[in-house]
């Protein structure tokens, strides 16, 4: 008995030791956690990482802000005027391609410096506690761990950032004056906005020092000084002991052209120059022919840096390229002048005759390159698509204008073009886009013609438009006969990748039904709603003929609020949604006003854009209705049921003679949409499910889901009218193959098209914030005939009898990690637990032996 007791005690003590090890590990982990929480600032400092290759100089054109006269500042008021400032403005400037990596900052011919910015990528910017605009100036200057020195190279001028804060408000101001904005601002980026010019992998956060050389004061031998051309400055950052620097030069903003030019007599001939102004600055190139004709193009100066900041910029800053129509001008000489914008802040006056500044002159002669017999060896033609855009957009004749419209969300995949009879009484317009190969463009270029359409018609390419649902002779378009309302646009450089699928080049045919003239039985006619058309592009090559056809329909575009054809009702709730649905093209700007006859209600939303659900930009999925929609939300919780509201929808900006009232209707405040739904446990073959009851206040749909209420959708009903529906059988798109819990959800028809469009539209009904849904167990009934299975013979497992012989362990599979599991902190967890169990088991076995 004594031996047994001693052995048990020894084993028990060993187990306690193991348990103590576990407790000790937990204690250590707790201590580390406490240390982290009590020494958070020190730990954060240790985590600051500086990318030593990331320091760079950037520049931003003084002309970017063309409104308030403040310059392109990170503070309001600026070009965005209402809600974008600080670090967001930097993101916008980058996105517009106006903020570039460049080692020079120029003083433009009007006497104003571009903005200069120095930037370094670093983590831990949170230490500087950026405000809501990202401003960290004061915290940066007071920090012992962050500093920057900006000094003249081979000179004695320095920039004292602190001195450039005195007398200026550090926060955004409302007055329209630059004098209230500091000439030097430090911004902390914790949101990784730098994007294109970030270097390496991490970090993508950092610090910007924004300088206005027009107002910043330098110190030179104890006296005040200013930036001057010909100087170079080095900015040296010291962040937690890590030093990194960049430099920038102050240059005169000039431009240059070639000594002479010899362009071909193409419809689109490009002439280039260069300038030291900031990228994104608009400049003008003007051709004056010997007979007095002139052509003037205003384009943006291009930058010459590579994405990722690998090229820090050079002098001159970049190229300026303009395209001119030189068709039919072979042999004519011309003078070419490059203009910089003038000083006036009003954008319309930048290039007026009194204000624009000539910075370079040259001359040239147009060469004859026409070859009417040119043939295309081989080509590709594919992926024709209809792209709709709102009426009133006039810039549709160049790839750059197309790219701008796409970028502004004004272009969508839409197989219909609508006539807005309720508002503008005008048609939307449409591009028919055909993807092709680079080989077609020399053929067009070398063909005779004074404009793009004529050169296209005389080339190996052709286009025909034919009505397909005419009772008699169809309406047709033949460009050789008439091109009114049609513009052919060559896109050899992929105007915007979002409309391309296969090729990198293409041809756009712009159709404007407001001007388009078709022919039927030899007589000129117009498009009318209710017609269908095919637009076919043909390319003749040495290897044969290629064809690609695009189909679309014309319709009378209606606009309505909420559900089409139903009385307009607005629910009584804190977030009542009012949805404008329209068949006119997406991408337009609207104003929606909601008032009441007694003047107690007056709400307005302006500059809101109708968007669709199509795969390309704003448009719809081909064939779906409505084309697009826009929603606003208002608080109607204090309005009584039955209150009358007047809803007015007005088109703004793009349409001619805007604003134009498209819709004016009355609405009534009603109880919010509601639904109840129930379903019982059931069994079946997995092909359908039965909903016991659903009650929909406003009609809608029932959907079936697996996994959760809003999990994968496996079935849905057709449109259900408002009211009670019992014993509703819902066919499943995906059969259930094993027992599961199924969920049914009641949905509204939010876009009023009586088609189930969830999740893009048709949100679920909600009651007090909860989705109207039910769930039930579903048992799949087997349809197979059972097969007899041999009955397994139960074998009793003998009880182990302890003996003095050593126990033999049953072999187990060894884990890949050597058999030791790890805890969440990376420590050995399974090993300790296993040791405890083994020790206790050993104690028990030892006791049995004794």
Automatic annotation (TrEMBL):
What residues does the DUF7282 domain cover?
675-778
Q: Does this UniProt record's set of keywords contain Mitochondrion?
A: no
Low complexity bias (residue ranges): 783-813
Pfam family, any one: PGF-CTERM
Q: What does the entry list under GO cellular component?
A: plasma membrane; S-layer
The answer to whether keyword Secreted applies is: no
Q: Where is the PGF-CTERM archaeal protein-sorting signal domain?
A: 828-849
Stretch list, region Disordered = 781-826
Q: Sorted alphabetically, which InterPro entries does this protein's record hold?
A: PGF_CTERM, Slg1/2_DUF7282
Keyword annotations for this protein, in alphabetical order, are: Membrane, Signal, Transmembrane, Transmembrane helix
The transmembrane segments are 829-847
Q: Record's NCBIfam families?
A: PGF_CTERM
Q: What is this protein called?
A: PGF-CTERM sorting domain-containing protein
Native organism: Halosimplex aquaticum
């Amino acid at each position: 008995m004594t031996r047994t007791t001693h052995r048990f005690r020894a084993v028990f003590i060993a187990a306690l030791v193991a348990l103590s090890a576990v407790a000790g590990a937990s204690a250590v982990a707790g201590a580390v956690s406490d240390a982290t929480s009590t020494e958070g600032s020190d730990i954060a400092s240790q985590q600051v990482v500086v990318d030593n290759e990331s320091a760079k100089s950037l520049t931003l054109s003084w002309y970017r802000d063309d409104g308030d006269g403040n310059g392109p500042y990170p503070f309001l008021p600026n070009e965005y005027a209402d809600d974008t400032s600080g670090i967001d403005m930097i993101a916008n400037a980058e996105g517009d391609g106006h903020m570039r990596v460049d080692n020079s900052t120029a003083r433009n011919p009007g006497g104003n410096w571009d903005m200069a910015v120095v930037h370094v990528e670093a983590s831990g910017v949170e230490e500087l506690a950026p405000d809501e605009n990202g401003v960290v100036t004061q915290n940066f200057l007071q920090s012992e761990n962050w500093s920057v020195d900006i000094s003249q190279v081979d000179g004695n001028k320095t920039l004292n950032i602190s001195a450039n804060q005195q007398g200026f408000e550090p926060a955004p101001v409302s007055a329209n004056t630059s004098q209230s904005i500091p000439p030097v601002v430090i911004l902390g980026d914790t949101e990784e906005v730098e994007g294109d010019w970030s270097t390496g992998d991490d970090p993508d956060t950092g610090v910007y020092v924004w300088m206005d050389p027009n107002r910043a004061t330098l110190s030179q031998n104890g006296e005040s000084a200013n930036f001057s051309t010909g100087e170079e400055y080095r900015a040296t950052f010291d962040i937690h002991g890590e030093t990194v620097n960049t430099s920038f030069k102050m240059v005169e903003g000039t431009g240059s052209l070639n000594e002479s030019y010899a362009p071909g007599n193409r419809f689109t001939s490009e002439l280039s120059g260069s300038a030291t102004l900031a990228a994104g600055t608009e400049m003008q190139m003007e051709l004056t022919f010997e007979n007095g004709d002139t052509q003037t193009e205003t384009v943006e100066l291009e930058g010459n840096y590579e994405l990722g900041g690998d090229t820090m910029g050079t002098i001159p800053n970049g190229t300026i390229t303009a395209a001119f129509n030189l068709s039919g001008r072979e042999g004519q000489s011309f003078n070419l002048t490059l203009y910089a914008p003038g000083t006036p802040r009003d954008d319309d006056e930048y290039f007026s005759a009194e204000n624009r500044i000539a910075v370079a002159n040259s001359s040239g002669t147009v060469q004859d390159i026409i070859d009417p017999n040119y043939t295309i060896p081989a080509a590709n033609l594919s992926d024709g698509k209809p792209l709709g855009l709102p009426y009133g957009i006039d810039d549709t004749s160049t790839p750059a204008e197309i790219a701008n419209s796409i970028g502004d969300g004004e272009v969508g995949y839409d197989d219909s073009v609508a006539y807005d009879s309720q508002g503008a009484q005008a048609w939307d317009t449409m591009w028919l886009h055909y993807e092709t190969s680079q080989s077609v463009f020399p053929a067009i270029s070398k063909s005779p013609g004074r404009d793009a359409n004529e050169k296209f018609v005389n080339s190996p390419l052709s286009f025909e438009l034919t009505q397909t649902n005419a009772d008699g002779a169809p309406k047709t378009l033949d460009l050789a006969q008439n091109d009114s309302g049609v513009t052919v646009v060559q896109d050899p450089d992929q105007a915007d990748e979002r409309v391309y699928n296969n090729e990198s080049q293409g041809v756009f045919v712009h159709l404007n039904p407001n001007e388009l003239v078709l022919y039927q039985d030899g007589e000129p006619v117009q498009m009318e709603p209710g017609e269908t058309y095919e637009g076919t592009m043909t390319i003749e090559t040495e290897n044969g003929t290629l064809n690609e056809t695009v189909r679309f329909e014309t319709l009378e575009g209606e606009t309505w609020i909420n559900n089409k054809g139903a009385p307009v009702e607005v629910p009584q709730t804190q977030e009542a949604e009012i949805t404008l649905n329209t068949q006119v093209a997406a991408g337009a700007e609207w104003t929606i006003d909601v008032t009441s006859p007694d003047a107690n209600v007056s709400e307005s939303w302006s500059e809101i854009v109708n968007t669709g659900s199509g795969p390309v930009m704003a448009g719809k999925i081909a064939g779906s209705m409505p084309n697009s929609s826009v929603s606003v939300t208002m608080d109607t919780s204090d309005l009584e049921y039955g209150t009358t509201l007047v809803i007015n929808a007005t088109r703004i900006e793009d349409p001619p003679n805007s604003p134009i009232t498209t819709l004016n209707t009355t609405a009534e405040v009603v109880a919010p949409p509601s639904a109840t739904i129930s379903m019982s446990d059931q069994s079946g073959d997995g092909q359908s499910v039965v909903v016991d009851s659903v009650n929909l206040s406003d009609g809608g749909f029932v959907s079936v889901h697996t996994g959760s209420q809003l999990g994968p959708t496996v079935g849905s009903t057709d449109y259900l009218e408002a009211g009670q529906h019992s014993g509703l059988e819902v066919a499943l798109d995906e059969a259930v193959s094993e027992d599961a819990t199924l969920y049914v959800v009641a949905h509204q028809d939010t876009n009023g098209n009586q088609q189930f469009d969830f999740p893009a539209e048709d949100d679920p009904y909600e009651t007090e914030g909860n989705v109207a849904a039910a769930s039930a167990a579903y048992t799949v009934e087997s349809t197979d005939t059972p097969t007899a299975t041999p009955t397994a013979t139960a074998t009793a497992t003998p009880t182990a009898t302890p003996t003095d012989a050593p126990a033999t362990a049953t072999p187990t599979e060894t884990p890949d990690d050597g058999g030791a599991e790890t805890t969440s902190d990376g420590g050995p967890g399974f090993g300790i637990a296993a040791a405890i169990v083994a020790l206790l088991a050993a104690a028990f076995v030892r006791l049995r032996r004794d």
